[in-house]
Known about the structure:
The protein is α+β, with helices and mostly antiparallel strands. The protein has three helices and ten strands. The longest helix is centred in the N-terminal third of the chain and has 19 residues, at 2-20.
Amino acid sequence: MKTQNIVWYSVFIATFFFSCDPKSSESLESSSSEELAMETGEVDNRPSPLEVKDGQIGGKSFKIHYSSPAVKDRAIWGDLVPYNVVWRTGANEATYVELAEDFSVEGEILPAGKYSLFTIPKESTDWTVIFNSEWDLEHGHFQYDEENDVLRVDVSPVWEENSQERLAIDIESPGIVIRWEKLKLPISIN
């Protein structure tokens, strides 16, 4: 019994030590959370599976990484996702985009780079779409810091009759379109 306690204590200490070890920017760029999840098989076990969409907008490379939650008979807008509060626009880690070149988002320039994508849902007005320089956030909006916002734009949501069970963020006209439940949020990017 004493040996077993020592083993568990050692595992705990090792886990704590390695989880606190800061990673260099080089190692952060070479291994991402989805790559690690794929290697360990965690992607298949996630309630909100990881999605990566890779495409072109105006001939320029654009990539989106997000976790796709399901409606599951839940009230989404104003309940699971509150109004007037920053939402990570997905589940699990922060949703993020990778831009190979500068893009125009709703008429505003967003420089090439990686950005987390947040939204502020609103009940009866335009939604705020946010691109934040802190893109590698393990806990989504819980780590969000407005000081790192690079771009904020307002976008008009469209409410559709048909409901979409899983959150989807697709690269399509007019740039990217977010769909979940009865929401369609078209974000103009070129």
